[in-house]
Every structure is written in structure tokens, then in C-alpha cells.
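Human: I would love a firmer grasp of how sequence relates to backbone shape in proteins. Could you go through the record with me and say what the backbone is doing? Here is the record:
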Amino acid sequence: MQQQPLQLPLQQPNLDPMAYAPIAKLDNFTDTTNSWYQSLVAKPQTFNEFKTEFLRYFSNNNSINYLINTFTTIKQEDTEAVTTYLGCFHRNLHQIQAIQADYFTVPQILNQFIRRLHSNILQQVCLMHPVDFSTAVTHARDFEAVELEANHVQAVNLVMNRSSDLDSKLKQFSNTINQKLEGYLADNHAIY
């Protein structure tokens, strides 16, 4: 079923044209906004009524819903540092708490932080059974440092192995050149 376009109230007494102009330019509202408007039992008759209803619906309740949705989908990406993930996590949590301070309990915050860590770090942090947020962050940073160090050691070992392979190949090449040079010199010495 196709939704009807949003029809704004035509009678606009005492309306500041600058306030109405950005909304009046819209022929249709889509998705959530249009659904909201179509669901209104009593349609607003003036722009001020429309504005009041619009702000009532979209300002607090849906902004916190958006923030909560964002908060529950934040995760540490594969190459993202724990500190970067923590900054994003804190920023979003503080935005939610500014609207509704007690929305999440401390255990919920701790669980959300841990379960959205990168899988390698998540496993290690879970094994430590942190009881508070600070401990979980410390464990995550420690395991990240260990993982980075292990990756560094692995990279150095790889370079060293490749270096050994190159040394071996260089020695083979050098021996081959020396043998050919000795053969050349022996052949040329016999001529003189």
C-alpha cells in the first residue's frame, strides 16, 4: 500500500516564513516521518501545532533510540585500537546518559564494552572475568599490547627467515659465479 504524501496545513497565521520555508519545500516525507504523520489521529491544523507534534515525537524519544541503536552496534574493528573503540564507546554512552542518566546499569555497560571487542581480545578479556569497567579496559589494552608485540616478533622472524633465505641464495649464486670464474680463468690461463 503506497502512503499518501504529507500535506502540511495550508493556513499559517502569524507564521514566520523563514521558519516554514525549509519544511514547505518538502513535497513528501519518507519512511519514518511519513509513517509518523500518517499515524496521527488528529492532524495538526497550523504550522505551530505541526511543529509541536513533530518535535514531541522526534526530539527526545527517537534521539535516544537512535543513540541506543548506535551504542549497541559500536564494535572494535579488526585494525582499530582499543583506545579508538573506547573513545567511540564513551562518546556515545555519555550522549545517552546526558538524556537519561540511568538508562544502562553498570553491568550492562561492562557487558556491552566486552562483547563488542575484537574477537581475539574479547576471548582473552572474558577469560579474566573482569568485575568492573576499568579492569576490563586495562585487560583489553594489555592483551592488545601483547598481540601487537607478538605480531612484531612474528614480522621480525619472517624478515629474518627471508634474510636467511636470501643469504643462502646469495652464497649459492656467489659459489656458482666463483666456479665459473675459476673455470674461465683456468681455460684462459691454459691459452697463455
